[in-house]
Amino acid sequence: MENGLISVDRWAKGSSAYFLTHLHSDHTIGLSSSWSYAPLFCSRLTAKLLPFKFPDFDLSLVRILDTGSWHTLSPSPAFPATLHVFAIDACHCPGSIMLVFRGEFGCRLYTGDFRWEPSCEKARKAREMLVDVVKDDVVDVVYLDNTYSNPIYDFPSRQLAANRIIDIISSHPDHDIIIGINTLGKEDLLLQIARALKIKIWVWPERLQTMHLLGFHDIFTTNTTLTRVRAVPQYSFSIDTLEALNTMRPTIGIMPSALPWVKKSLQKGELLSGSFLTSRFKRGRMSENGVQIDKQIGNTGPLDKFHEYIYSVPYSDHSNFAEIEDFIRLVHPATLKGIVSSSSCYIEPMYYFGRLCRVNQPIRRQLHNMHKRVEAVSPKISFGGDNVKSERNKGKNLKGKFLGVRVSKLSIYRRRQRGVKIVEDNSLDQD
Ligand SMILES: [Zn+2]
């Protein structure tokens, strides 16, 4: 069911306003150049990048949400309620924001994808801003970036991971270097590499245009003769590619990601992101409630060499488990809901973080109560998304898979999912 007042990172018809947290493709499924259902709210930088991703998009629909102040949508024929929204830097990729909503439905916080490291100055300021915004309020629901909401995800800050990547490149002075990146994000990493090693970095032509839009004019190039370091699209980062490159020149690949890769029968031609190994983790015992407890193998630090030619370094634009825990402790919401339903090692976030919520009670009872409360106040308010029942069942299915083969292709799962899963109040009674 898609009807509702607003949608966040969901683009089906039926809402009166739409909010875009950032331009990664798993948050824009359904958005297109011809999309025109209602006003679209996003950060200033996302608005700048939007026409590049969606040429011919009707820019008269775009509304800018600057961070640091409340924005109010007043009732009108097109928008039948009063809504207040506050945007805060999510420190995930250029233009990314998290959103605090206030309205008849109460106060809700949608994190989008975010990384708030204690050592990051930008994140510290964002954190202070959030504290100030919610200090007199109870956050009824946090829609959480639960990508790494499992204690196995104990990876370092981006700064430490970047240092490690620079070390790897420095220790291979005669090698070409291939780094797998997305169409947006990891710019800071590339800048640090360029500065530390005093080199330019090759990117593909569309990515160079994005870099120019972001204001980086001198560091990146599309001329392969100018540098030995190339940032390539993740989809082209494969074992086959690296083996082929090594027949011409010594080359190593670096994948900056904290997602564990899957070790299974590697097929020739299969992409690394769907076929590699998870050597940093091992299967642990089952807990009493059927949750698989994984453990990291030893203290391998931020570096793992997975293959003769490939390193995987957990440079992540998503918060690790401890950072998420800190975040929930800070916000102290009534309840929370994960927005990533098919991440690796999926576990309902309330399992680990419910003790940090105000309503510390079994999930089923809590959801039931929340439904009754929301319905009493405003039955028509909804945040678009799959219903709770289907999402929770997906979670159960994934848990089931943990008993056997590890869930594979998890990075691809994440990109393929249909938008972000958000609680839809009208369906809470279906479970
Ligand atoms: Zn993202």
Q: Can you give a write-up of this model?
A:
- Keywords: DNA damage, DNA recombination, DNA repair, Endonuclease, Exonuclease, Hydrolase, Nuclease, Nucleus.
- This protein has helices spanning 44-53, 121-134, 158-170, 187-197, 205-213, 239-246, 321-331, 349-353, 363-377, 388-402, 410-416; strands at 6-8, 17-19, 40-42, 62-64, 70-73, 83-89, 97-103, 106-110, 141-144, 176-181, 201-202, 220-221, 229-233, 251-256, 281-282, 295-296, 304-307, 310-313, 335-338.
- It is an alpha/beta fold and 431 residues long.
- The protein has a six-stranded mixed β-sheet. Strands 13-10-14-18-17 form a five-stranded mixed β-sheet, sandwiched between helices. Strands 1-2-3-4 form a four-stranded parallel β-sheet.
- A hairpin with a 7-residue loop joins strand 6 (83-89) and strand 7 (97-103).
- Helix 3 (158-170) crosses helix 4.
- It binds zinc ion (ZN).
- The site of zinc ion has 5 residues, from loops.
- Zinc ion binds at residues 22, 24, 92-93, 113.
Count of helical segments? Answer: 11
Q: What is the topology, as strand order, of the major beta sheet?
A: 5-6-7-8-9-19
Average pLDDT, to the nearest integer? 78
| Hetero ligands | zinc ion
Structural class: alpha/beta
Q: Tally of extended strands?
A: 19
User: Major β-sheet, in short?
Assistant: 6 strands, mixed
Q: Tell me the helix content.
A: 25-40%
Distance between the termini: 15 Å
- Beta content comes to 15-25%
Specify the overall morphology.
globular
Low-confidence stretches: 270-302, 361-431
Keywords: DNA damage, DNA recombination, DNA repair, Endonuclease, Exonuclease, Hydrolase, Nuclease, Nucleus
GO molecular function, one term: 5'-3' DNA exonuclease activity
Subcellular location: Nucleus
Pfam family, one: DRMBL
